[in-house]
Amino acid sequence: MPIYEYHCNTCEQNFEYLVFRSQEPDCCPACSSSQIIRKMSICGFVSKGSAGEPVKTAASSSSCGGCSASSCAGCGH
Predict the structure, then answer these.
(1) How far apart are CA 50 and CA 5, in angstroms?
(2) Which residue in 38, 60, 56, 36 sits closest to 47, CA to CA?
């Protein structure tokens, strides 16, 4: 069951919601407005370097130095 991040366009509140079986929230928990949108989340993870040491990375990091794509799938490298 994933936790998604949402933003309320009425009160500008950001909140998280645990989604059961694709059941999205109906309203903002702060102001009860139905003007909410799901935000694009960036996940983080820890991978191991060449010597086995933990290396922090994020999904928004690009391995290409001059690439502006959010992932290597965007530019094909």
Answers:
(1) 34
(2) 56
CA distance 17 to 26: 11
Q: How many CB atoms lie within 10 A of CB 46?
A: 8
pLDDT digits (tens, 9 = 90+) for 29-61: 999 999 999 998 776 666 778 887 877 655 544
Mean pLDDT, the chain, whole residue set: 77
Q: Which residue has the tokens 């998604």?
A: 4
Domains of the chain: 1-58 (2.20.28)
**How many angstroms separate the CA atoms of 66 and 12, rounded?**
34
Helices and strands in the chain: count of H runs, count of E runs:
1, 5
Distances (CA, A) of 75 to 59, 61, 70: 15, 13, 9
